[in-house]
Structures are given as structure tokens and as C-alpha cells.
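Dear support,

Our group has been running a series of protein-ligand predictions, and this particular one with magnesium ion is the one our PI (initials K.S.) wants archived with full inputs and outputs. We had some confusion internally about which version of the output was final, so please treat the block below as the authoritative record. The input we submitted was:
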Amino acid sequence: MHALDIIQEEHRNLWRIAITMDWVADSLQNGEQVEEGFFVALFDYIQEFMDGCHHAKEDQYLFLAMRRRSPEAAVILDRLEAEHRDSPQLLQALRGFLGQGPRALTGNAEFIDALRHYADTLKQHIRHEEKDAFPLAREILQPDDWAGITAAFSDHHDPLFGKQARAEYRELYHRIVSLAPEAIGLGGRSAGGFAHLSSSSGAPQPLLKVDGLESCYGRIKALKGVSMEIFKGELVALVGANGAGKTTFLRTLSGIQPMSAGKIRFGGRDLSRVRSDRRVKAGICHSPEGRQVFGPLSIEDNLKLGAYLRPPEQLDEDLERVYAMFPVLHEKRQLPAGTLSGGQQQMLAISRALMGRPRLLLLDEPSMGLAPLLVEEVFNVIRTLKNQGMTILLVEQNAFAALGIADRAYVLETGNIVLTGTGQEMANNEQVRAAYLGM
Ligand SMILES: Nc1ncnc2c1ncn2[C@@H]1O[C@H](COP(=O)(O)OP(=O)(O)OP(=O)(O)O)[C@@H](O)[C@H]1O
Ligand SMILES: [Mg+2]
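Confirmed final output from the archive:
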């Protein structure tokens, strides 16, 4: 990758940081509370990577080479370098507001202004650099200049956005990707811990065993004898084209859609003739296609509905667990669910299912209709749940991403399972690649 491409990519990420700062400033102004840990991670990252690495290397390599090639460069670069020098001081001033608890930040006009000012300065700086410095660099720098600069930038390890992102920046990353490119926030993070909810005896008995399942809409048979096994702790993907019967399969497992033949065993029990509410009670919790949150109800009430069959004394604990995973839902808990963005509604739909303390979580197309960064975020959440030991059946049209995280997968074609194997095998399978991965 060429140095300028690397720098521009880093700018895009810094721009997201600026947008995140603006957004958080708005939240604080609206009287919301934001944890200090978020700011600490944000400021640490800026200090470590933006000031310590990105700016430093621009000064040492790109700007230095430009100054060598052309005296004209000084006019532009003096200002940019001065901004680089000022940044740590501005950041230090921001840090000065921390340490007095998160309440001290809510509605604190001085801090909010300082945040906004920092974000504006950062955006202006990036604009200035790309508009003025880069065109000049392209004009005056020679191939051997570029080789040196590219080498210097190529060994960057961005601890937030890079391939080897570090754990302490994980929550910050969730916040930022969920804000960009559009101003919508999922705010998912890897806290919460659902692991202890699904026991892991390691017994070889499948948790779910479906045999010859059939289901019809009138005379149309949508499922023609589907069999599937899911073991505890597995993430199983069900992929297939439009109308293959994926949703029908999940709805039949949940008991919302009647079955006309076959058997569903769950946790050693035959659930084939058991009502849908009893199946939820047994631990089959469903996040439906199209999210289907109750728009006029508050976010918290939507979550409580997911816990309808749970012992009331555990409600607070379960709410806390969900809120720890999705702080944004906590921040907005009193608002009508309809005010949430599509991505946030998806998180709410998943959270509502989690409120039932699933032993098996059914997810129907959780990434549908979301912007690419949010799709990535949804898959991060699913991966986190899996790592916590949750057993998941994931229905996805985004077969590529689903196979990438699944332990095993099934391919459904017009009501029949036509292929099954590990996620990896399926992703490498010629037939699957041709039909679903567009390769
Ligand atoms: N309510 C319904 N009434 C009649 N037919 C239906 C109904 N819902 C689904 N079908 C039909 O059943 C078949 C399976 O549909 P289903 O929604 O389960 O597929 P899917 O794999 O989930 O598709 P998609 O990827 O579009 O969500 C399709 O032929 C569909 O037209
Ligand atoms: Mg469907």
C-alpha cells in the first residue's frame, strides 16, 4: 500500500474519532451519562497512536521529505506541524476534567466545549492536510522519497482499528464503528457475560435434534423433511437463498409456525407438541427476521417483554447484563424503541431474546439492511456471545460472513438441507462458493 493511502485510511479512522467526540458531546449536553472509561480509552488512543505515531511519522518522514524537495512546502507544513505540537496539550486539558466521576462530565459546558473544539480542530487539520499538503506531496516527491515514507508507515500497528487491535480498546472500537459512517450507535461491547447461563457438561448429546421436520403454508410445503443437530456451545449457520425456508424453519422451532411432520427434541425433551411459550421457557429464544421491536414501547419495556416468562426477581440482574453489553440501550432505555436506528433496533431484538436466558438463541438475518460497518458490528456481537458459551443458530443471507464465524453450517434449498459441514469446509466448497458466495 502506498504511504498516502495508509495515511488517508488513518485519517478516515481519525475522522470517525472526531465524529464520536461530537456525538458524545451531544449526549453529555442532553444530560446523559457517559462512563469515564470511555474517555480514558479515547484519550489514550489519541495520545498513543495519533500523536505518538501518525503525526510523528508525518513530521519525520512525509513533511521532512517535502521540505527537502521544495521551499514552498514550509507555508503549508509550518501550520500542520504546529497543530501536531499543540495536540498533546489540548488532550491534556481534556484529561484534566476526568477523575471526578462520570456525573461531573454530564452537562459540564466547559468539558463539552473542549471536546467539540478538539473534534473541530482534528477535522480541520485532516481537511487541510488532504487538501493542501497531499497534492503538493504528489507533485514534488520522487519515487525514492515515497519508498522511505511508505516503509515508515507500513509498520504501523494501529491498536484500535488495526488487524492486531488490542483488548483495552475493544469497547471504544464498538462505539466508534457503530457511529460511522452514519450517526447511529449500537454501542455493543464485549462485557456482560452470558457464559454461565449455558452449562457446558461436554456430553455428546445434541442440545437440539430435529428430524424430518415438515411445515406447510396451505398446500405449499415450505419445509420438506429438515434434519439438524446442534450441540451445546456451537454456533451453527443456516444459509440459503431467498425463500429457501430459513425463516419458516426458525418459526417452526419456536412453535409459532405449525409443523406437519417430524420431531423436535431439545435438551432431551420432545418439544414437537409443546406450545411456543413453553419452548421459550425451555430456553429457545428467537430474535425474528425484521427485528419486530415494539416501536411505541420503551426500550426497557421491550426488554422486559423478553423476560416475560422469567422469575421477576432475576429481571434486574438480566437487564444489567444486557445493558453492560449494549450501553447505548441503557442510555436510551426510557425512549420509544421506534426512535432507535436500524442497527440499534437489531441490538434490541437480540437483547430481548437474551432476556429469556436462552439455552439456544435463534437469530434470523441479524445483519439484514444494515450498513457494512454495522454488519461487522453485529457479527462481533455474535462472536462475543459465542465466546461466552452461548449456543446459537444463525440464519443469514450473508453466507460469507456467517460461514466465517460458524462452527458448522447447513445449506437449505427449497425446503431441503442439501449440504452440511464445518463452516470452513462449506466456505471452501465449490458448490457453496458458486451458489452463495458469488465466486
Ligand atoms: N405466510 C406465508 N404464506 C405463504 N407462503 C409463505 C409464507 N411465508 C413464507 N412462505 C413461503 O415459504 C417459502 C419459505 O419462505 P421463508 O420465509 O421461510 O424463506 P427464507 O429462506 O426465510 O427467505 P428469505 O431469505 O427471503 O428470508 C417461500 O416459498 C415463501 O414464499
Ligand atoms: Mg427469512
